[in-house]
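Duplicate of earlier report; Protein nucleotidyltransferase YdiU input re-posted below.
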Amino acid sequence: MKALDELTFDNRFARLGDTFSVHVLPEPIDNPRLVVASPAAMTLLDLDPAEAQTPAFAELFSGHKLWADAVPRAMVYSGHQFGSYNPQLGDGRGLLLGEVYNQAGEHWDLHLKGAGQTPFSRMGDGRAVLRSSIREFLASEALHALNIPTTRALCVIGSDTPVWREKQERAAMVLRLSPSHVRFGHFEYFYYTKRPEKQKELGDYLLAMHFPECLEQPEPYLAMFREIVERNAELIAKWQAYGFCHGVMNTDNMSILGITFDYGPFAFLDDFDAHFICNHSDDQGRYSFSNQVPIGQWNLSALAQALTPFISVEALRETLGLYLPLYQAHYLDLMRRRLGFTTAEEDDQKLLEQLLQLMQNSGVDYSLFFRRLGEELPEQALARLRDDFVDIKGFDAWGERYVARVAREGEVDQQQRRARMHAVNPLYILRNYLAQKAIDAAEGGDYSEVRRLHAVLSNPFEEQPGMQSYAERPPEWGKHLEISCSS
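Output:
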């Protein structure tokens, strides 16, 4: 394991030059201090987790100090925000400090969010607040533990620096890791500013660094686009299967690598509601839970438009046509496993849809239902779960079909079935009220709850002694928290 001063930098994106990013130094925050760190994320850089307790750790990840080989850059891009094109966005409060490669040869961007103003800040102050930094940290590491592709979060650094949002808060910084921070909006920026040579430079860079297998194909750009479509279909299938709502699926928030990116007003479903809107600012429900699937396709279409200088429209349309079938295949496969099935039957989709409609009508807790379904033999589990449903007759009828479906799987050892289902059905998820309790404590100077919640969420599938309170249904006040883009 390495110490902080032993990290090895190779700043490949910075070498693309000033057309793609500009040099900006981070603005330090007052009295920086560690709020929480992820030992698992630190190991991606071969960092010794004990380094998080050193004074240098808080100084480096709050902008007070820089590594000699770090080259902080603010990236430029554009994007469609709520369906409308914004010609220039960019890193308004974040900086790509540099790229570190580990002993396994993996490259990781060190991206500091809340680092101060950049040329792309527009009217913003370039800061992040403690609550949003904690939420992004917890979500990044929680989704990773659920096997959902995501950026990682190394740490949150708190401060005494005042920041004004709806009220006065304190500034914080979160350090996130990703193999790349290139977004759909990067291609859109150079497409709409009519600089195809820069688009090609970016595309060639991505092919070489992140899609080298596509270089072996007759049309590398088309092969890369197909890979992006496939990755996003699988990503959104996992979001839907686990009840995750992103909240702001603008094209500038979509990763070219198909990973969950730019956490804002996200939420996991408590009671199942296909029409749930997690973003208080989303008046029209554009990014509601059920709309995430078509919006994923819409965003891929926007990327396809930006790639028309390099790929024929016909080939782009054909590739986009893969998205929905791929999504449906990934989603149904995961939901079969969540229901305890090991085989596929033609009517499984219908059985699932009937269940979700019953859950919708009764406000059934989405995550706990699947967890409890695997606790006991199907008949016993259903007998315990039926009281959660208003339409008991309808649920009983569904239960009969479910028991018959399980029976067709053949003889199954319940202990094995339970282990198999629990391996895909989490006991602990990042509910908004749990995050809010941790934030409230942290804003009062107590970081123990953030650290405890992070530890619980890092192992979501296994029951942890003494942590039953993290697996309960939320109180009524916890189901209706308003989360905005500033969160």
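The chain is about 40% helix and 15% strand.

Merging into the original ticket.
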